[in-house]
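thought: fold this chain, then report.
action: predict
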Amino acid sequence: MRIVFFGSGAFGLPTLGALSREHELCAIVTQPDKPAGRGGTLTPTPLGAWAAEWIAADASRSAIPLIKPEKVNEASVVEHVRGLGADAWVVIAFGQKLGARLLDGVRAVNLHASLLPRWRGAAPIHHAVMAGDAETGNSVITLADRMDAGLVLGQSRRAIERTQTTGELHDLLAADGAPLVLDVLARHRAGTLKGEAQDESLVTLAGKLGREDATIDLAGDAEACRARINGLSPWPGVAARIGAGDAGGWREVKLLRADSEASSGKASGGPKPGSVISAAEGRIACGRGVLRLIEVQPAGKRAMRWEEFARGAALGADARLEVARA
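observation:
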């Protein structure tokens, strides 16, 4: 089949690679290059960088357009893309809404990283982990006027492990997306593709996250802290400091991976939330239960296991963890 691919983020890379092997890519559309780093160097999207290398690697691909429109719905872009005569369009984390003039009469499918209708929106993987969901997956849907509200054409499922981070789950779901999209396209070609409407009563939203969201409440439940730390890793990451105040000094760290232990059942009289119960094991008292830190990143250094950090930190008996507030 002749495919036009729309995508920008790294999540679409495994699917784009699979499409390049199994189908004919007649165009790749991505976001424009943007300034990055201290020098503001114009940098392509992950999809744009891969596509440029893939096209350059084989002279027979030189005619495949790599399109980077500022506005994908401009008349010239619409005319160009629609004039390619593709059999189907695949859209994955493109970053611009495709308008009605562009989509009219076209079979376009979108890969979304959740089991829709749960977690519609910009950050479905983060929210699934932060919510403590036991399972998530991918959905391939038709494009609709409302965000992620199209007909479901296929789904894949994956368990979420207790100490799995959003970064790890992102890569696994990205890999799962490739065979799912290929299956949907095969059913489209065979004329057997059918869509199922989403149950609107089950919709949850996965809004965009920022650094202001990167916090936990140690006075609350350790299980909720575990889920948020893992869900916010590696970005934006929960910023914290650990130490004993002015006398013992503070060490700035980003919390990257955690587990939790159930409460002992004591209503009061235990250590205050944030107290380091065991420096060697990374056990931190919460309002309910115990948080166990597994991986952290000290300021200006690489990520490391808690045990490695603790050996160099020389945490005393009065050490405590304090979480930065937005």
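thought: worth noting. The chain has a mean pLDDT of 95.
final: tokens above.
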